[in-house]
Each structure stands twice: as structure tokens, then as C-alpha cells.
Amino acid sequence: MTIIKSLLKMLFTLLISCLGSILFIYLSLPLPWLLGSIFASSFLMRFENLPIQSPKLFSTPARIMIGLTIGSAFTPEILQFLDIYFLSLLLIIPYTILTIVFGMYYYHRLIGFDKKTAYLSSMPGGVIEMVIIGEQIKADISKITLVQSSRLFFVVVTLPFIIQYVFNIDISGNKIITTPIINIDLFELSLLLIAGLCAGILAKKFNMSAAFLMGPMIISILLHSSGLIHTSMPDEFLKFVQVVFGTIIGFTFKGVQLKTVIKTLISTFGHFIILAIVSAIFILIASSLFDFPIVSILLAFSPGGQAEINLIAILIAANVPYITLHHIVRLLIVMNIAPIFAKKFKD
Predict the structure, then answer these.
(1) What is the pLDDT of residue 197?
(2) Cα distances (angstroms) measured from residue 126 to each of 34, 36, 50, 107, 275
(3) 160 and 30 Cβ atoms separated by less than 8 Å
(4) How far apart are CA 198 and CA 233, in angstroms?
(5) HSE (side-chain half, CA atoms, 13 Å) at 88
(6) What are 172's strand-pairing partners?
(7) How far is Cα 179 from Cα 337, in angstroms, rounded to an integer?
(8) Residue 30: what pLDDT?
(9) Is 276 exposed, middle or buried, given 0-12, 13-18 or 19+ CB atoms closer than 10 A?
(10) What is the pLDDT of residue 173?
(11) pLDDT over 60 (residue 334)
């Protein structure tokens, strides 16, 4: 009975988030399904007496769908360009190191975090991964969660506006972004979903970072690049994914005093400006060296979460393999160096 009650709360919350998305569609704002749900859930979670709950139960299915969608972009034609991406991928190494160095200086020297907390707060990695490492080394988990979530919030909210109003790429309204479900091969889709779920479970068993994103992505790459499967996620599924992630992001600050939220947002905004400057430098370098679309480079060198950035890339029909590979390299660097150096910092 408790499970059913929780499920009903989640569904009610998602319904309200959908209303926020419809409002954003009406106002012709960018990425209405994602940003509208962030807006609605952020507002909704301030009312504690309402029967609402963060839809974390839907997070895993949503990640699987994103992973499968990313993999579907890796067609045999795309894979022949991987050697061209190599030099651009090398830029991710200094980019990641600089964002960590500047971020740690900012949080430790200017904001007053201890070294362990400042280090993990500065990491351009996933919120969950940084919190897990923070627990292991006894860093301040609450600060890491708030800071990492705020960074993600700023990136996800600002990028669509930059893409739409600076680069004049229309991502507003309720348009079809991929293939509608009525035009999808349902048999292939079923096989793809089953394969994605199995790959996610297997990746989790091997303790792979972001298992339910990376596992399905890898199996989808293998299936699509070999030509065994041609189907990708239906348009309706991706809209659902946007609402789920938007609602979860909005719920990040649930239970936190508004004063603390505002203070964290202000302090994190300083770090966000630093990240924006570093990203802009590398975007200019990459755009001058390589003949890739500027929006793809922008997303490749954006310090957001892998799932969220790839979702935006899918929605604007950017070069998904190029962007995904850059974020995979960044994630591998972060997840491998974060635990090593974090343990060296003294309390």
C-alpha cells in the first residue's frame, strides 16, 4: 500500500510538472518539457503539505532511454569520423584539470570550504558520484550536493537560452523532435528496451559509473553501428524523460531552507562564471582548430551532467557522438582522479 501511495504521489508530481511544460510551450520558451518541469517542481516542492514526491523511481528507466538514444546516433557512417574527433578529445584533459583547479581555489579560498569538500564541489562530474566519494572520505555531503546540483541547474537552464537566442536555433514549442511512436517498429523497440535494461544491470554489477546510462549506451552503439537495429526512442518517450529529469532537478532543494538555497545559488554562480569562462576559451580553441559545428563544440565543452547535456544534444539534432565522446572522456578522468586525490587531503 505504501508503494502504491508513493507511486501516486510521483505521478501527481509529474502531472503538475507537465502543466509547467505546457505553460512554457504556450510562452514559446526553449526546451519547454525540461525547463517547464524544472520551474513547476521547484515551485511545487516549497509546499510541504501537498501529496508530492520526487519521481526518482523513474530515473533509472529515463537514463536507460537516454543511453539507448545516444547509442542510436552511432551509425556505421558516423563511426568513420572517430579519428577526426581524437585531437578535440585531447583538449578535454587540460579543460577538466583547469576547471578543477580554479573551482577548488574558489570554494576553498573564497567560500571557505574545507579542502575535501572544495575538491569534490569543483569536480565537473555527476552529483551522485561525487556524493558517494564524499561519504567515503568524510567530506561535507550536504554542501557537495547543493553545489553540484546548483551547477547542474545553472547549466541546464542557461544553455537552451544561449542555443536559441545566441545561435538562433529554434528549440521552443511543442514540435516533434524525433520519430512519433506510431512510426516506430515496436518489435525492434521492445528488443532495444530489453537489451538496454539487461546492459544496465550488467554494468551495475561491474560497478560501472553511471551504469544505467553507460550500459544501455554501449549496447545501443553495438546494435546500431552493426546495423542490427535501426529503431531509436520514440518522441513521446523523450518528452517523458525530459519531464522526469526536470522534476528531479527541481526537487534537489526540497527540505532545504530558502535562505540556504539562495546563498548556495549565489556562491555557486561565482563558480559557474569561472566555468563559463574556461569553457568559452576551450570552445574558441576547438572551433578555430576543428571544422565542427559551433553548437556541438559548445555542448561538448559544457560542464553539465552527461545525461542532461546529451538530452539537449538529441533535442537540437547536434552531433551526438562527438558530444558524447567528450563527456565520456571527462567522466572517466573525473571518476579516476577524484578518489585518488581526495584521500590525500587532510581534514
Answers:
(1) 96
(2) 18, 22, 29, 18, 15
(3) yes
(4) 17
(5) 29
(6) 30
(7) 40
(8) 67
(9) middle
(10) 54
(11) yes
- Name residues whose C-beta falls within 8 Å of residue 113's C-beta, 6 or more positions apart in sequence: 107, 121, 140, 143
Distance CA 200, CA 98 (A): 32
Residue 63 near residue 211 (C-beta atoms within 8 A): no
Q: Enter the C-alpha cell of residue 76.
A: 556505421
Statement: residue 149 has pLDDT above 80: no
DSSP 102-123: HHHHIIIIII---HHHHHHHH-
Q: What is the pLDDT of residues 203-255, one digit of tens each?
A: 999 887 678 888 998 899 899 888 888 888 888 888 898 899 888 878 876 77
The length of the chain, given as a count of residues: 347
Q: Are 111 and 262 in contact (CB under 8 A)?
A: no
Copy the grid coordinates of residue 320: 551526438
Which pLDDT band holds residue 274 (cuts at 50, 70, 90)? very high
Whether the Cβ atoms of residue 144 and residue 134 lie closer than 8 Å to each other: yes
Q: How confident is the model at residue 201 (pLDDT cuts 50, 70, 90)?
A: very high
Q: Radius of gyration over alpha carbons of the chain, in Å? A: 20
pLDDT of residue 219: 94
By C-alpha distance, which of 128, 177, 157 is closest to 37? Answer: 157
> How many Cβ atoms sit within 10 Å of the Cβ of residue 40?
26
**227, 76 Cβ separation under 8 angstroms:** yes
Q: What angle do CA 72, 148, 216 make, to 5 degrees?
A: 20
Confidence of residue 175 (pLDDT cuts 50, 70, 90): low
Here the cell at position 128 is 551522485
Query: How many angstroms separate the CA atoms of 71 and 84, rounded?
Result: 19
Of the spans 13-22, 252-261, 306-315, which averages the highest pLDDT?
A: 13-22
DSSP for 275-338 reads HHHHHHHHHHHHHHHS---HHHHHHHT--S-HHHHHHHHHHTT--HHHHHHHHHHHHHHHHHHH
